[in-house]
Automatic annotation (TrEMBL):
Domain of life: Bacteria
GO MF annotations in UniProt: L-aspartate:2-oxoglutarate aminotransferase activity
Listed name of the protein: Putative aminotransferase
Coiled coil: 8-38
InterPro entries xref list: AspAT_Ic, PyrdxlP-dep_Trfase, PyrdxlP-dep_Trfase_major, PyrdxlP-dep_Trfase_small
Organism the protein comes from: Monoglobus pectinilyticus
SUPFAM superfamilies: PLP-dependent transferases
Pfam families: Asp_aminotransf
Keywords (A to Z) from UniProt: Aminotransferase, Coiled coil, Transferase
Keyword Endoplasmic reticulum: no
Length: 428
Protein backbone atom coordinates (compact mmCIF):
# COMPACT_ATOMS: atom_id res chain seq x y z
CA UNK A 1 0.00 0.00 0.00
CA UNK A 2 1.39 3.39 -1.00
CA UNK A 3 2.50 5.54 1.94
CA UNK A 4 0.79 8.40 0.17
CA UNK A 5 -2.61 6.77 0.81
CA UNK A 6 -2.10 6.05 4.53
CA UNK A 7 -3.74 8.04 7.33
CA UNK A 8 -1.43 10.01 9.62
CA UNK A 9 -2.14 7.52 12.38
CA UNK A 10 -1.05 4.60 10.20
CA UNK A 11 2.04 6.51 9.06
CA UNK A 12 2.98 7.04 12.72
CA UNK A 13 2.44 3.37 13.55
CA UNK A 14 4.66 2.34 10.65
CA UNK A 15 7.31 4.88 11.65
CA UNK A 16 7.52 3.70 15.24
CA UNK A 17 7.94 0.09 14.07
CA UNK A 18 10.74 1.07 11.69
CA UNK A 19 12.45 3.23 14.28
CA UNK A 20 12.86 0.31 16.63
CA UNK A 21 14.49 -1.60 13.77
CA UNK A 22 16.75 1.41 13.30
CA UNK A 23 17.83 1.36 16.97
CA UNK A 24 18.72 -2.33 16.71
CA UNK A 25 20.88 -1.61 13.67
CA UNK A 26 22.62 1.34 15.33
CA UNK A 27 23.61 -0.96 18.20
CA UNK A 28 25.47 -3.20 15.73
CA UNK A 29 27.99 -0.39 15.02
CA UNK A 30 28.33 -1.38 11.37
CA UNK A 31 30.84 0.04 8.97
CA UNK A 32 29.56 -0.50 5.41
CA UNK A 33 30.18 1.51 2.27
CA UNK A 34 28.25 1.80 -1.00
CA UNK A 35 29.86 5.06 -2.02
CA UNK A 36 32.85 3.91 -4.00
CA UNK A 37 32.70 3.33 -7.77
CA UNK A 38 35.64 0.96 -7.68
CA UNK A 39 36.15 -2.62 -8.85
CA UNK A 40 36.37 -5.21 -6.07
CA UNK A 41 39.38 -7.46 -5.42
CA UNK A 42 37.97 -10.33 -7.48
CA UNK A 43 37.72 -7.98 -10.47
CA UNK A 44 41.28 -6.76 -9.95
CA UNK A 45 42.45 -10.37 -9.80
CA UNK A 46 41.10 -10.88 -13.34
CA UNK A 47 43.97 -8.78 -14.70
CA UNK A 48 46.87 -10.19 -12.70
CA UNK A 49 48.09 -12.26 -15.66
CA UNK A 50 48.62 -9.04 -17.57
CA UNK A 51 51.59 -8.37 -15.31
CA UNK A 52 53.27 -11.49 -16.73
CA UNK A 53 53.00 -10.43 -20.36
CA UNK A 54 56.01 -8.18 -20.08
CA UNK A 55 59.11 -9.18 -18.08
CA UNK A 56 62.89 -8.88 -18.13
CA UNK A 57 63.11 -11.38 -21.01
CA UNK A 58 60.60 -9.53 -23.22
CA UNK A 59 61.56 -7.64 -26.31
CA UNK A 60 59.95 -4.30 -25.62
CA UNK A 61 59.72 -2.99 -29.16
CA UNK A 62 56.42 -1.66 -30.46
CA UNK A 63 55.08 -2.73 -33.87
CA UNK A 64 56.72 0.38 -35.28
CA UNK A 65 60.10 -0.84 -34.05
CA UNK A 66 60.24 1.82 -31.35
CA UNK A 67 62.00 0.70 -28.17
CA UNK A 68 59.30 1.24 -25.53
CA UNK A 69 61.87 1.36 -22.75
CA UNK A 70 63.06 4.73 -23.94
CA UNK A 71 61.65 8.26 -24.26
CA UNK A 72 59.46 9.28 -27.19
CA UNK A 73 56.20 8.37 -28.87
CA UNK A 74 54.23 11.35 -27.60
CA UNK A 75 50.90 10.10 -28.94
CA UNK A 76 51.25 6.43 -27.98
CA UNK A 77 52.32 3.26 -29.76
CA UNK A 78 50.34 2.25 -32.88
CA UNK A 79 48.97 -1.02 -31.50
CA UNK A 80 47.62 0.77 -28.40
CA UNK A 81 45.97 3.37 -30.65
CA UNK A 82 44.28 0.53 -32.54
CA UNK A 83 43.05 -1.11 -29.33
CA UNK A 84 41.69 2.08 -27.81
CA UNK A 85 40.12 3.12 -31.14
CA UNK A 86 38.35 -0.23 -31.33
CA UNK A 87 37.07 0.22 -27.79
CA UNK A 88 35.61 3.61 -28.65
CA UNK A 89 34.40 2.44 -32.06
CA UNK A 90 36.50 4.98 -33.92
CA UNK A 91 39.66 5.05 -36.09
CA UNK A 92 43.25 4.76 -34.77
CA UNK A 93 44.39 7.83 -36.71
CA UNK A 94 41.99 9.85 -34.55
CA UNK A 95 43.53 8.64 -31.28
CA UNK A 96 46.23 9.73 -28.85
CA UNK A 97 47.03 7.21 -26.12
CA UNK A 98 48.00 8.87 -22.87
CA UNK A 99 49.01 7.97 -19.36
CA UNK A 100 47.11 6.32 -16.56
CA UNK A 101 44.08 8.60 -16.35
CA UNK A 102 41.50 9.89 -18.81
CA UNK A 103 40.42 12.47 -16.25
CA UNK A 104 43.91 13.98 -16.48
CA UNK A 105 43.50 14.28 -20.26
CA UNK A 106 40.19 16.10 -19.77
CA UNK A 107 41.75 18.41 -17.18
CA UNK A 108 44.76 19.11 -19.40
CA UNK A 109 42.65 19.97 -22.44
CA UNK A 110 40.50 22.36 -20.46
CA UNK A 111 43.59 23.87 -18.89
CA UNK A 112 45.01 24.33 -22.40
CA UNK A 113 41.78 25.97 -23.58
CA UNK A 114 42.01 28.31 -20.60
CA UNK A 115 45.58 29.43 -21.14
CA UNK A 116 46.14 29.13 -24.90
CA UNK A 117 42.69 28.96 -26.48
CA UNK A 118 41.56 26.26 -28.91
CA UNK A 119 42.60 26.41 -32.58
CA UNK A 120 43.39 30.11 -32.49
CA UNK A 121 40.33 31.22 -30.50
CA UNK A 122 40.52 33.48 -27.45
CA UNK A 123 41.79 31.71 -24.31
CA UNK A 124 38.87 30.83 -22.09
CA UNK A 125 40.47 32.61 -19.14
CA UNK A 126 39.77 35.86 -21.03
CA UNK A 127 36.10 35.01 -21.50
CA UNK A 128 34.17 36.61 -18.73
CA UNK A 129 31.09 34.64 -17.65
CA UNK A 130 32.43 31.48 -19.26
CA UNK A 131 29.99 28.63 -18.82
CA UNK A 132 29.83 24.87 -19.17
CA UNK A 133 26.78 22.63 -19.54
CA UNK A 134 26.48 19.87 -16.97
CA UNK A 135 23.83 17.23 -17.66
CA UNK A 136 22.64 16.15 -14.21
CA UNK A 137 22.59 13.74 -12.52
CA UNK A 138 26.16 13.39 -13.73
CA UNK A 139 29.75 12.79 -12.64
CA UNK A 140 30.96 15.05 -9.82
CA UNK A 141 34.61 15.03 -10.94
CA UNK A 142 33.62 16.42 -14.35
CA UNK A 143 31.74 19.26 -12.71
CA UNK A 144 34.66 19.86 -10.34
CA UNK A 145 37.16 20.38 -13.19
CA UNK A 146 35.10 23.10 -14.83
CA UNK A 147 34.24 24.70 -11.48
CA UNK A 148 37.96 24.76 -10.69
CA UNK A 149 38.59 26.78 -13.86
CA UNK A 150 35.97 29.33 -12.93
CA UNK A 151 33.23 28.23 -15.30
CA UNK A 152 29.63 28.82 -14.36
CA UNK A 153 28.06 25.36 -14.29
CA UNK A 154 24.66 25.16 -15.98
CA UNK A 155 22.63 22.05 -15.15
CA UNK A 156 20.84 20.32 -18.03
CA UNK A 157 18.09 17.81 -17.21
CA UNK A 158 18.65 14.18 -18.15
CA UNK A 159 15.99 11.84 -19.46
CA UNK A 160 16.11 8.18 -20.47
CA UNK A 161 17.62 9.09 -23.89
CA UNK A 162 20.38 11.34 -22.56
CA UNK A 163 20.53 15.09 -21.91
CA UNK A 164 17.43 17.10 -22.83
CA UNK A 165 18.54 18.13 -26.33
CA UNK A 166 15.92 20.87 -26.69
CA UNK A 167 17.61 22.63 -23.78
CA UNK A 168 21.14 21.93 -25.08
CA UNK A 169 20.36 23.19 -28.62
CA UNK A 170 18.66 26.32 -27.34
CA UNK A 171 21.49 27.21 -24.96
CA UNK A 172 24.49 26.57 -27.22
CA UNK A 173 22.98 28.36 -30.20
CA UNK A 174 22.19 31.52 -28.25
CA UNK A 175 25.22 32.11 -25.99
CA UNK A 176 28.86 32.19 -27.10
CA UNK A 177 30.15 32.10 -23.53
CA UNK A 178 28.95 28.48 -23.29
CA UNK A 179 32.18 26.66 -24.08
CA UNK A 180 31.34 23.01 -23.67
CA UNK A 181 29.29 20.17 -22.28
CA UNK A 182 30.12 17.06 -20.28
CA UNK A 183 28.68 13.77 -21.56
CA UNK A 184 28.95 10.12 -20.53
CA UNK A 185 27.16 8.58 -23.51
CA UNK A 186 27.12 4.93 -22.48
CA UNK A 187 26.00 3.62 -19.08
CA UNK A 188 26.11 7.15 -17.78
CA UNK A 189 27.48 7.83 -14.31
CA UNK A 190 25.20 7.61 -12.32
CA UNK A 191 22.00 6.83 -14.26
CA UNK A 192 23.34 3.94 -16.32
CA UNK A 193 21.40 5.06 -19.40
CA UNK A 194 22.75 4.89 -22.97
CA UNK A 195 22.26 7.96 -25.17
CA UNK A 196 19.82 7.23 -28.00
CA UNK A 197 20.92 7.42 -31.64
CA UNK A 198 18.73 10.50 -32.06
CA UNK A 199 20.42 12.23 -29.13
CA UNK A 200 23.84 11.44 -30.63
CA UNK A 201 22.75 12.80 -34.03
CA UNK A 202 21.52 15.96 -32.38
CA UNK A 203 24.85 16.35 -30.60
CA UNK A 204 26.78 15.96 -33.86
CA UNK A 205 24.53 18.52 -35.53
CA UNK A 206 24.67 21.20 -32.84
CA UNK A 207 25.10 24.74 -34.12
CA UNK A 208 26.97 26.41 -31.28
CA UNK A 209 27.45 30.16 -31.31
CA UNK A 210 30.94 29.72 -29.82
CA UNK A 211 33.39 28.48 -32.48
CA UNK A 212 35.41 26.86 -29.70
CA UNK A 213 32.45 25.03 -28.13
CA UNK A 214 33.47 21.44 -27.35
CA UNK A 215 31.63 18.26 -26.41
CA UNK A 216 33.60 16.30 -23.80
CA UNK A 217 32.40 12.81 -24.71
CA UNK A 218 33.62 10.67 -21.84
CA UNK A 219 33.07 7.11 -23.01
CA UNK A 220 34.42 5.71 -19.74
CA UNK A 221 32.01 2.76 -19.74
CA UNK A 222 32.12 1.89 -23.47
CA UNK A 223 32.73 -1.83 -22.92
CA UNK A 224 31.19 -2.17 -19.46
CA UNK A 225 27.98 -4.10 -20.14
CA UNK A 226 26.75 -6.32 -17.33
CA UNK A 227 24.49 -8.35 -19.63
CA UNK A 228 26.20 -10.19 -22.47
CA UNK A 229 23.24 -9.94 -24.79
CA UNK A 230 23.23 -6.18 -24.26
CA UNK A 231 25.79 -5.13 -26.82
CA UNK A 232 24.87 -1.50 -27.18
CA UNK A 233 27.27 -0.10 -29.74
CA UNK A 234 26.54 3.58 -30.03
CA UNK A 235 27.34 5.58 -33.20
CA UNK A 236 30.90 6.90 -33.49
CA UNK A 237 30.62 10.53 -32.43
CA UNK A 238 33.87 11.43 -34.20
CA UNK A 239 32.53 10.35 -37.63
CA UNK A 240 29.08 11.75 -36.90
CA UNK A 241 30.55 15.19 -36.14
CA UNK A 242 32.67 14.94 -39.29
CA UNK A 243 29.60 14.12 -41.41
CA UNK A 244 27.70 17.00 -39.85
CA UNK A 245 30.48 19.44 -40.79
CA UNK A 246 31.54 19.83 -37.14
CA UNK A 247 34.77 17.78 -37.11
CA UNK A 248 36.47 19.80 -34.36
CA UNK A 249 33.51 19.97 -31.97
CA UNK A 250 34.21 16.82 -29.96
CA UNK A 251 36.86 15.16 -27.81
CA UNK A 252 36.15 11.56 -26.88
CA UNK A 253 37.83 9.89 -23.90
CA UNK A 254 38.19 6.40 -22.50
CA UNK A 255 40.54 4.38 -20.34
CA UNK A 256 41.19 0.89 -19.06
CA UNK A 257 40.81 2.00 -15.44
CA UNK A 258 37.81 -0.26 -14.86
CA UNK A 259 39.08 -2.96 -17.21
CA UNK A 260 42.48 -3.67 -15.69
CA UNK A 261 43.72 -1.56 -12.76
CA UNK A 262 42.34 1.89 -11.82
CA UNK A 263 45.33 4.17 -11.54
CA UNK A 264 47.52 1.81 -13.57
CA UNK A 265 45.61 1.59 -16.80
CA UNK A 266 45.99 3.45 -20.08
CA UNK A 267 43.86 6.34 -21.31
CA UNK A 268 43.02 7.79 -24.70
CA UNK A 269 41.52 10.81 -26.37
CA UNK A 270 40.05 10.72 -29.88
CA UNK A 271 39.38 13.79 -31.98
CA UNK A 272 39.78 15.49 -35.37
CA UNK A 273 43.22 15.88 -37.02
CA UNK A 274 43.26 19.61 -36.18
CA UNK A 275 42.43 18.98 -32.52
CA UNK A 276 45.04 16.21 -32.29
CA UNK A 277 47.73 18.60 -33.57
CA UNK A 278 46.49 21.17 -31.06
CA UNK A 279 46.67 18.64 -28.20
CA UNK A 280 50.14 17.44 -29.16
CA UNK A 281 51.13 21.10 -29.30
CA UNK A 282 50.77 21.44 -25.52
CA UNK A 283 51.44 17.80 -24.59
CA UNK A 284 54.98 18.11 -25.90
CA UNK A 285 55.70 20.65 -23.16
CA UNK A 286 54.11 18.47 -20.48
CA UNK A 287 55.85 15.17 -21.20
CA UNK A 288 58.50 13.52 -23.36
CA UNK A 289 56.14 10.61 -23.79
CA UNK A 290 53.69 8.33 -22.00
CA UNK A 291 54.34 5.00 -20.24
CA UNK A 292 54.71 2.88 -23.38
CA UNK A 293 55.62 -0.27 -21.46
CA UNK A 294 52.19 -0.17 -19.85
CA UNK A 295 50.63 0.35 -23.28
CA UNK A 296 52.53 -2.70 -24.53
CA UNK A 297 51.49 -4.71 -21.47
CA UNK A 298 47.83 -3.97 -22.20
CA UNK A 299 48.03 -4.76 -25.91
CA UNK A 300 50.00 -7.96 -25.44
CA UNK A 301 47.53 -9.15 -22.82
CA UNK A 302 44.29 -8.37 -24.67
CA UNK A 303 45.64 -8.70 -28.24
CA UNK A 304 42.52 -7.08 -29.69
CA UNK A 305 38.99 -5.87 -28.96
CA UNK A 306 37.73 -9.47 -28.82
CA UNK A 307 40.20 -10.01 -25.96
CA UNK A 308 38.79 -6.97 -24.14
CA UNK A 309 35.22 -8.13 -24.65
CA UNK A 310 35.98 -11.62 -23.30
CA UNK A 311 37.65 -10.01 -20.28
CA UNK A 312 34.68 -7.68 -19.72
CA UNK A 313 32.34 -10.69 -19.74
CA UNK A 314 34.23 -11.92 -16.66
CA UNK A 315 33.77 -8.55 -14.97
CA UNK A 316 30.09 -8.75 -15.87
CA UNK A 317 29.74 -12.15 -14.19
CA UNK A 318 31.03 -10.61 -10.97
CA UNK A 319 28.99 -7.41 -11.17
CA UNK A 320 25.65 -8.72 -12.42
CA UNK A 321 24.67 -10.53 -9.18
CA UNK A 322 25.56 -7.43 -7.17
CA UNK A 323 23.39 -5.12 -9.25
CA UNK A 324 20.59 -7.67 -9.20
CA UNK A 325 20.81 -8.08 -5.42
CA UNK A 326 20.41 -4.33 -4.90
CA UNK A 327 17.51 -4.18 -7.34
CA UNK A 328 15.74 -7.13 -5.70
CA UNK A 329 16.04 -5.70 -2.18
CA UNK A 330 14.86 -2.28 -3.33
CA UNK A 331 11.90 -3.97 -5.00
CA UNK A 332 11.09 -6.13 -1.96
CA UNK A 333 11.33 -3.20 0.43
CA UNK A 334 10.05 -0.23 -1.52
CA UNK A 335 7.96 -1.34 -4.47
CA UNK A 336 4.40 -0.06 -4.31
CA UNK A 337 5.06 2.46 -1.52
CA UNK A 338 5.05 5.34 -4.01
CA UNK A 339 8.11 6.92 -2.44
CA UNK A 340 11.07 6.02 -4.68
CA UNK A 341 12.33 5.27 -8.18
CA UNK A 342 15.62 3.80 -9.26
CA UNK A 343 17.40 2.74 -12.45
CA UNK A 344 18.12 -0.84 -13.50
CA UNK A 345 21.16 -0.30 -15.73
CA UNK A 346 22.54 -2.75 -18.28
CA UNK A 347 26.09 -1.65 -17.59
CA UNK A 348 28.38 0.83 -15.90
CA UNK A 349 29.06 1.16 -12.20
CA UNK A 350 26.04 2.81 -10.61
CA UNK A 351 22.36 2.74 -9.78
CA UNK A 352 20.68 6.12 -9.60
CA UNK A 353 18.01 6.38 -6.91
CA UNK A 354 15.40 9.11 -6.50
CA UNK A 355 13.52 9.71 -3.26
CA UNK A 356 10.50 11.97 -2.95
CA UNK A 357 11.50 15.64 -3.11
CA UNK A 358 13.50 16.84 -0.13
CA UNK A 359 14.38 13.40 1.26
CA UNK A 360 17.78 12.53 -0.24
CA UNK A 361 20.22 14.27 2.11
CA UNK A 362 18.37 13.17 5.27
CA UNK A 363 18.36 9.60 3.92
CA UNK A 364 22.13 9.61 3.41
CA UNK A 365 22.64 11.16 6.87
CA UNK A 366 20.46 8.54 8.53
CA UNK A 367 22.30 5.77 6.68
CA UNK A 368 25.59 7.06 8.00
CA UNK A 369 24.17 7.05 11.57
CA UNK A 370 23.37 3.37 10.99
CA UNK A 371 26.92 2.73 9.77
CA UNK A 372 26.44 2.80 5.97
CA UNK A 373 28.27 5.34 3.80
CA UNK A 374 26.83 6.70 0.54
CA UNK A 375 28.09 9.38 -1.83
CA UNK A 376 26.79 12.66 -0.36
CA UNK A 377 23.35 13.55 -1.69
CA UNK A 378 23.64 16.30 -4.28
CA UNK A 379 27.09 15.15 -5.47
CA UNK A 380 25.59 14.21 -8.82
CA UNK A 381 24.63 17.87 -9.46
CA UNK A 382 26.76 20.94 -10.26
CA UNK A 383 28.07 22.58 -7.06
CA UNK A 384 26.81 19.52 -5.16
CA UNK A 385 23.38 21.10 -5.22
CA UNK A 386 20.45 18.91 -6.21
CA UNK A 387 17.63 21.48 -6.34
CA UNK A 388 15.01 18.86 -5.52
CA UNK A 389 17.19 16.99 -3.00
CA UNK A 390 16.12 13.69 -4.53
CA UNK A 391 19.06 11.90 -6.10
CA UNK A 392 21.36 9.36 -4.46
CA UNK A 393 24.07 7.40 -6.27
CA UNK A 394 24.40 3.75 -5.26
CA UNK A 395 27.71 2.07 -6.08
CA UNK A 396 27.32 -1.68 -5.66
CA UNK A 397 30.63 -2.87 -7.13
CA UNK A 398 33.25 -2.66 -4.39
CA UNK A 399 31.57 -4.22 -1.33
CA UNK A 400 31.09 -7.96 -0.91
CA UNK A 401 27.67 -9.51 -1.48
CA UNK A 402 26.83 -9.90 2.21
CA UNK A 403 27.61 -6.24 2.90
CA UNK A 404 25.77 -5.07 -0.21
CA UNK A 405 22.62 -6.86 0.86
CA UNK A 406 22.73 -5.57 4.41
CA UNK A 407 23.63 -2.03 3.29
CA UNK A 408 20.77 -1.95 0.77
CA UNK A 409 18.27 -3.13 3.41
CA UNK A 410 19.45 -0.38 5.74
CA UNK A 411 19.26 2.11 2.89
CA UNK A 412 15.64 1.12 2.16
CA UNK A 413 14.82 1.38 5.88
CA UNK A 414 16.35 4.82 5.93
CA UNK A 415 14.37 5.94 2.87
CA UNK A 416 11.17 4.77 4.54
CA UNK A 417 11.87 6.47 7.88
CA UNK A 418 12.86 9.79 6.34
CA UNK A 419 9.87 9.79 3.98
CA UNK A 420 7.44 8.87 6.75
CA UNK A 421 8.76 11.69 8.92
CA UNK A 422 8.31 14.17 6.07
CA UNK A 423 4.79 12.96 5.30
CA UNK A 424 3.80 13.13 8.98
CA UNK A 425 5.25 16.62 9.32
CA UNK A 426 3.46 17.75 6.20
CA UNK A 427 0.14 16.42 7.49
CA UNK A 428 0.64 18.14 10.89
N1 LIG B 1 34.93 9.26 -16.30
C1 LIG B 1 33.90 8.70 -15.65
C2 LIG B 1 32.52 8.90 -16.15
C3 LIG B 1 34.13 7.94 -14.50
O1 LIG B 1 33.09 7.39 -13.86
C4 LIG B 1 35.47 7.76 -14.05
C5 LIG B 1 35.80 6.94 -12.84
N2 LIG B 1 34.94 6.96 -11.81
C6 LIG B 1 36.49 8.38 -14.75
C7 LIG B 1 36.20 9.12 -15.88
C8 LIG B 1 37.92 8.28 -14.32
O2 LIG B 1 38.68 7.72 -15.33
P1 LIG B 1 40.26 7.57 -15.26
O3 LIG B 1 40.58 6.58 -14.20
O4 LIG B 1 40.63 7.11 -16.62
O5 LIG B 1 40.84 8.92 -14.94
Amino acid sequence: MSYLDLSTEDLKKELSKLKSEMEEIKALELNLDLSRGKPDKEQLNLSMEMLNTVNSKSILDAESGMDCRNYGGLDGIPEAKQLMADMMGTRPENVIVGGNSSLTLMYDIISHAMTDGLLGEKPWCQVEDRKFLCPAPGYDRHFAITEHFGMKLIPVPMNENGPDMDVVEELVSSDDTIKGIWCVPKYENPMGIVFSDETIQRFANLKPLAKDFRIFWDNAYCVHSIYQNEETDIPDIISECEKAGNPDMVYEFCSTSKITFPGSGISAVASSPANLIDIKGFLKYATIGPDKINQLRHVRYFKNIAGIKAHMAKHADILRPKFEAVDKILNDELNGLGIAEWTKPNGGYFISFNTLKGCASDTVTLCSKMGVAFTPAGATYPYGNDPEDQNIRIAPTFANMKDIKLATKIFALSVKIVTLEKLINKAA
